[in-house]
Amino acid sequence: MCLVFDAGNKFVWSGHKDGKIRAWKIQQNLEGNSFKEFFSWVAHRGPVLSMVMSSYGDLWSGAEGGVIKVWPWESVEKSLDLTPDERHTSALSLDRSYIDLRTQVTVNGVCSISNTDVKYLLSDNCRAKVWSAGSQSFSLWDARTRDLLKVFNIDGQVENRVDLSSLQDTSIEEDMKVKFVSGSKKEKPQGSFSFFQRSRNALMGAADAVRRVAKGALDEHRKTEAILLTIDGMVWTGCANGFLVQWDGNGNRIQDFQHHSASVQCFCTLGSRIWVGYVSGTVQVLDLQGNLLGEWVAHCSPILKMAVGHGYVFTLANHGGIRGWSVTSPSSFDKILRSELASKETLYKKLENLKILAGTWNVGQERASHESLLAWLGPAASEVGIVVVGLQEVEMGAGFLAMSAAKETVGLEGSSIGQWWMDNIGRILDEGTTFERGGSRQLAGLLIVVWVRKCLMPHIGDIEAAAVPCGFGRAIGNKGAVGLRMRVYGRAMCFVNCHLAAHLEAVTRRNADFDHIYRTMVFNRPSNLLNAAAAGVSSVGQMLRVTNASGINSEEGKPELSEADMVVFLGDFNYRLHGISYDEARDFISQRCFDWLREKDQLRAEMKAGKVFQGMREGVIRFPPTYKFEKNQAGLAGYDSGEKKRIPAWCDRIIYRDSRTLFAPVSECNLECPVVSSILHYDACMDATDSDHKPVRCIFSVDIAQTDDSIQRQEFGKVIESNQKIKSLLGELCKIPETIVSTNNIILQNKDTSLLRITNKSGKDEATFEIICEGQSTIKEDGENSDHCTRGSFGFPRWLEVTPASGVIKPGHIAEISVHHEEFHTLEEFVDGVAQSWLCEDTRDKEVVLLVIIRGSCSTKTGSHSICVHNSSSSLRVNSKRNDSDKNQANVLHRSASPISGSSNVAEDLRNLHMPS
């Protein structure tokens, strides 16, 4: 469920669904690195949802129900030092050594923190704090004392769950002391609270819980999905509605941004840059102020995780794909690189061709005969790779429409009649042998289904569905659209089945229906069969349905349909012939004068005026109007001759757009114009008599340009190696700014504070710094140092506070870091979260080595400087081996500045932590 890497001790801690935490040791041997389980123990009753190692080396873990446990470094260290024969005792020892933070902040049955699952834990090493987060609340803790500092919600409002005004008498203070300091399990003095006080607190807790549940239902779209600490000490959270929220280290909400409408899934950071991964597959790059530097579509499916290493940002998608992107992009050399690669396009461009059959039929609540289906789809499907079928009026009626709307609200769809149509068309296409059903979507009477030829399946993926109701207040599916989006040879194709407003005079309403569908269609549901690997994202997709109901990118105003490489609209658009009588229309049809009839076509006129289907085109209509016919009557004599005598019309249409612009229809297929299509056949099946509409079909020949990734990578490498300007720019970006520190030795006594100054000598480049504890030792009686010891994850000793431990230094500026000695008490052992001995002061002198790691704002290369910090436990006890000048320099910084050296071993280890294996 979660992983923590202990860089200082080369351990990996893994939290598991069975509640166990496992320790894995990385060891070097002659055959390379080995990675074996060291020991494990049961940490929680349920899954371990989150883990983090604090700046003092403690291991924190979060679980369901708001449970947070801390395993002190002292206890963990004992287990790490055990011999192989003794490790069987480590599980018992660690299992009993935890501190239960939830128990510590519970008073009279009312807990100060939320009981929602602890999904995220974050160590603020800059200020020695720990953040714990659920979906809609946060708790802020002191990493050194493990005290609760603050509880607040997603709006930044402080939540006080315990009424402390009634806890003023001495006996209650003693009760608190027993609970928080000694951790004893003795009974609390029951006389401390009156019956009414206890009842009041219980009612407050119950009311608070009810309030949170009600508010949580409203704030579901704002729930936290990711959390990140940046080098400047700010904390960023990403929300399900795409919002990015910036917090300071004290839990104050600073500002928020929304650069994308989809749900945030993950973060990562390096230097002064932040990368954000979204459920839409988009990656964005921000600076530390939240300004958008760049964005691109990294994957066709949700991005689950991101990590920085070895000069790249790596993204992991829901379908298992991993890609790497340069940490320097966007930058000035991108344009040069893009131009160089474009000139070599012929080397790595591949062209693919396939045929797509699109068919539409308003079936009028009837079931077609096998002969009609065969005549409509059979011969045409034999030569295509993809078949897309859109049906209208599969099933209607007020009861069915109401039931369908109710099912949609809980994420259900489909009907038995819809299934009948899919099964019977599948038989015509030899489903299971020749074709595979790729996906489907039904909204009331609307149904769209896609079949893919088996040999083409490896090149098809990420099939997603969507639905937009347009009837009865934009809520009922008697009118509207259903759509499928899929990747074909890496290119996005969308197929949309529409049923627009009826009647001759409703042209404006039809235009409005199309506009509503185009703007608001959001593809968010993983489909079946071909996209089985995406089943795990269904909950995210459902959330996206809520959070992005408009379907419009709030920043750019781009509908999802506009970003596809090819879009095909098919269906009963209901546009009629205007300015012509029934008899005139019948005469022209009998004479097959379709050119003159097209001049009377409402859809043609509206498209020409730019009012609907903007930027799209249609094949030449050479078939009779497909509406309206008497059922079961063959031939053109079957047009409606009843009382209403509806004028025949081309209601059933197929319209499309590819990568070409409307004004450049002959564009060559290339990587800049990757999908170019032409129409091979566009006709109606006049032999089908099962409905009052005739089915229509269209066969597209589609050329698709794709990249041969292996060849492109080779050419990419050649450009990087040969282009001197790119090499120069990359060198500038990776350069470490010239930086100096004010001292290499600090001596502290009781509660002393010294200032460490880091100066950025560069005149134009920002520098970032991070301070870790490389190791510590204890001064023995004879003045010798004990063995070198590294706390977990390069953690600080508890007697030392370094603030801030990371930050950004502007060109020519100086960062001042406070190095403070704090009273420190050792805590020998915990059993079931309860201290087994009183706190005692450690009076031995100690030394630590602080490592200042410097890098550029966008560089993985590091420089470092070591600083020795000596803690003299008493101002009267100074080691005899120290000379008088050392004594006089206690609490005083050396004035000689020391330049940052090249990467030390530890700094190099840190850089290599994120390198791909």
TrEMBL record:
Cofactor list: Mg(2+)
A Gene Ontology BP annotation from the UniProt entry: phosphatidylinositol dephosphorylation
Region Disordered: start-end pairs: 897-917
Basic and acidic residues bias locations: 908-917
Molecular functions per Gene Ontology: metal ion binding; phosphatidylinositol-4,5-bisphosphate 5-phosphatase activity
Keyword presence, Disulfide bond: no
Superkingdom of this protein's organism: Eukaryota
Domain Inositol polyphosphate-related phosphatase: 352-708
SMART domains for this protein: IPPc, WD40
InterPro entries recorded: Beta-prop_IP5PC_F, Endo/exonu/phosph_ase_sf, Ig-like_IP5PC_F, IP5, IPPc, WD40/YVTN_repeat-like_dom_sf, WD40_repeat_dom_sf, WD40_rpt
Keyword line: Hydrolase, Isopeptide bond, Magnesium, Metal-binding, Repeat, Ubl conjugation
Family listed: Belongs to the inositol polyphosphate 5-phosphatase family.
This protein's name: Inositol polyphosphate-related phosphatase domain-containing protein
